[in-house]
Predict the 3D structure of the following.
Amino acid sequence: TAQPALVTDSATTFTSTTVTAPGIGTSSAVIKKGQVIDVKDTTAGVVYSSLVLSMSGTTITIDTAWYVRDGTGSTTGTPNAGSLMIVAGFTKAWGQNTNITLNADSFATGIAGYELGLVNNKTDGSGYGFDCVSLGSKKIGNFFQARGAGIIGFVSYVGRAFGCVSFSATTAGFYSSGDNVGFSGQGNAIGVEIKAPTTYALQVVKNDNTFMTGMNPVGAWQKLRLDASSITSGGSMSSFTPFNTITPASDGAQFTMPAASSLGQVLVYIRNLHATYSVVAVGSFEGGAGTFTIAAKTTKQFWSDGNYWYPAN
């Protein structure tokens, strides 16, 4: 059980190596040399820490200085009067805390902080390797947490029906933020399977949750968006843009299609915006033709099989 702090008092005055407060005198029996003493200075917006060196009356003398808790261990200062003093206020309680060290001269080549062997000779699917349950009136922050320098946060090896399972999460079953890649799948039989969604199978929203596009529960796209760009008369069409427009500079002006060989199974749209001029697409077209003419004010679809562009409308 995590205990309350031994002493707290905000009727305080400080020097660079002492603190004086009424609560010190009334708690002399429990204040000992070497205890941690913290000071929350809300005026300066910092927290100081030190160790109790000695006590006399209502004054504690600390070891060396008041150190600012800024991660450096070198910044010191003097707290403002009225700051909250806390003696032996432990901020965390451990059920188990184990440290394992692998040194450069260690004969061992690996370490395990905790290893548990389970032997189930009765029923498949019975038992837990680790069971964490929240029994208090308040919610636990993280049931599992990985910190510090490492390669992989969690690994599930072969032989598991599911690598990770989440039931009834109120916000998200899986959450990724700030990662280089939010999800990466490699060598899977099925990259992603979405089964029986109730609202959307897939949804893209802005930061304020404004709907951008999505696939509904029956697999139909809503607000389907196609990237669009303009082709320069006499120039080349982008291989990344599905919807393209062009205004030819003269009747029969040409532009170059992307290589069909690099865009197998791709469907593109090309709109000739000119009121009277036709435009000529140059590329590999059905039957080995090298050009295709798109009439004025006409939109053409082309599909590639990896060899040729085929008119699709």
Q: What stands out?
A: The chain has one helix and 20 strands. The mean pLDDT is 94. Residues 7-87 form a domain with the Elongation Factor Tu (Ef-tu); domain 3 fold (CATH 2.40.30). The longest strand covers residues 46-56.
